TrEMBL record:
Region (Disordered): 1-34
Protein name: CNTLN protein
Gene Ontology biological process terms, A to Z: centriole-centriole cohesion
Native species: Casuarius casuarius (Southern cassowary)
Biased composition (Polar residues): 18-32
Upper taxonomic lineage: Eukaryota, Metazoa, Chordata, Craniata, Vertebrata
Amino acid sequence: QQEKEDLQEKLKLREHLSQTASKNEATPTPSKNIDLEMKQLQCKLKNSNNEISKQSTTIKSLKNEVQDKEERIQELQVKISRMERDLNMKRHLIEDLRSRLKANQENEKTYNETLQSLERKVKALTEECSNKKTSIDSLKQRLNVATKEKSQYEQLYHKAKDELEKKHLKFTNLESKMIETECAMSALETTASQQLHGLAKQSGQALETVQKRLLLANDKVDEFTVFVKALTRELQHSIQELRTKIKQAKKKGEVRTCKKGLSQECVQRARSLAASILNVSKTDLEEILEAEDDEETTKTKMEAEKDKEWLHYIQKLLEAQ
């Protein structure tokens, strides 16, 4: 269309030029050129008109196709809208079905739990029923036994009644006899009291003799304690003298001569007495005697303390009962 308009403008210009040229009566050579150009332009116009007609036909056909396609598009859009509606409806239905499924599953779980609990209850009830049946059977057996025992106890009751009556008669007889025995007992008590007075006099005389013996025994015990105290003091004194003699003999180097001068029996007695007082064996006593002077001094002090402790111990024993 634009080329057509351009060509029409050019034609108008050429016509105008041709008119001006005819008016001016110009040379014949440019008019020929103009005619040729005009012919060419007319040919081009024809060609362009043909093309325009072709294109218009194609445009019409394309418009028809476009209309058909638009109609199809409208139909498809209607179908799509329907399909979307269907899809939305189906989605809603699926969501409803899912929610129902979840609810049904939860209900199934609750139903299963209730079923399990009911089954457990049924089992427990069946067990209870069986236990109750066994207990009822045992109770029936016990009832039968109890009825038998009741009949036996009734028989025993009647027998006991008869025996009670007999024993009541015996009891009355025994009461009469008891009265007789009480009279006899009173007589016996009087005789026994007389005999007890005589025995009391005899026991008093025996107690006096026992008291005299006790006084004699206490005197002997006092004499014994005095003897023991004196003996312990003399033992301690003799042991101290022996120790001083042994020290002096060791200092002078005359221990052996003293041993020869003294008899073996005296030495052995002294050692045994020292060992018993010190609660030491003979070998330990010899080791003590043969130790150094410093050790002897400390040991003599310890032995003197032990002797004092021994004296206190004996005094406590004597003071005790």
